[in-house]
Please model this.
Amino acid sequence: MKIERAELRQVPMRLEEPFEISSGVMHERHVILVRLLGQGLEGWGECVAGEDPAYSSETTETAWHVLTRFILPAVVGCSVEGPEAVLDPVRWIRGHRMAKAAVEMAAWDLAARMDGVSLAEKLGGTRSVVPVGVSIGLQESDEKLTEKVAGYLTEGYTRIKVKIKPGRDVAMLGRVRERFPEVPLMADANSAYTLADASLLKKLDRLGLMMIEQPLRHEDYLEHAHLQALIGTPICLDESIRSVGDAELALKLGSCRVVNIKPGRVGGHGEAKRIHDLMQSRHLPVWCGGMLESGIGRAHNVALASLPGFTLPGDISASRRYWARDIVSPEFEVNDGTMVVPTGPGLGVEADRERIESLARRRADFD
Ligand code: NPG
Model:
C-alpha cells in the first residue's frame, strides 16, 4: 500500500460533562485526527494524548510536534507491505506511542478499505457485538455517584467502573456496593496510591470487585506484584502496559491478572494484537479501555474489542455519553450492554469531514 497524502487536524470537542480522575478534571478534548490517502481511498486515526502530561508524558502538543516534524514527513510517499509496516521509517523514534498509534491505526483503516473488508475483520475480530461498560468520573458526593450508577444501569450498561482516589475509595465503593449488590463493579485509581496503602486496598476485597485498575504508579511493576500477593481483588494494569514487553514483564513478576488494552496507548493495533495474543496464550482476560475518544477512535476500539480474547466489557460507551454531537455517522449506541461492531469497509462509520474542517483549530497537510 502507498501512503500518497496525509492530513492532520486538531479539533476541540467539549465533553457533555466534566470527567474527573485522581490526577485532575477534563472539560474538553483536543482531538488530533489523521487522514491518510491512497488509491483514491482514505483511512482515519485519532491520537489519544491528553491536554496535560498527567496520564502519560505525551500531550496534544508533543504529539502534534512529533507527527508534523518527524512521523508524517517520513511516512508520506512510502510504499509498504501493510499497515504494520507503515511506521518502519520512524522505528528510530523513541517513545511517542500515542503519536505513532494515530498513524498506524489510520493505515489499518486504509488497508481494510483497500481490501473491501471491515477493520474488525482485517484485525481478526470474531464477534459481531461487543460487551461494553461505562466509566464514571469522581463525583462530589456518594449520593451523586449512586444516582449516576442508577442512571447508567437504566441506559443498559451492565458493567460499572468507578474512579477512586485517597479519601474517595473504600467507604464510597461500599455505598455503591450496598445499593447495587449484584452489579459487575470495578475501581480505577489512575496511580493514586503507593504500597503504604496496601492495608486500605485490602479492604476492597470485601466488595466483590471485578478488579482494581492501576492502583500504583506506572513504573511500579515490582510494587504491583507485592500488592497483588497481598490482595485477592485482581489487579488490572493500564498506564504500566505500553508494549508487549511491558505485559511480559508484568506477567512474569505477577504484577497483574488482567490488562486494559488501548491501541492508542501502545502504539497501534499491531502492538495491541500482540498483547492480546500474549494474554490469550496465558488464558488471562483483556478488555478495551477508552480515552474519551471521538467516534473515530471509538470505531477503532470497537473493532479491536471484537477479537476473541476481549472477554470483559470495555470502556466503550455510546457517543452521546461524551458529546452533544459526534463527528461520525452513524453515532455509536449501546443496547442491553452491548455495541454492534460496524460491518462496512474500514471503520464502518463515516467521518463528518465538513464538520471536522469547520471545527479544526490547527491543520497540516503532507503530499
Ligand atoms: O469512556 O473513554 C471512556 C473513558 C474511560 O476512564 C476512562 N478513561 O484512565 O482509563 C482511564 C480514563 C482516561 C480518560 C484517562 C482520558 C486519561 C484520559
Observations:
- Residues 97-115 form the longest helix (19 residues).
- The chain has a mean pLDDT of 97.
- Residues 319 and 325 are 8 Å apart (CA to CA).
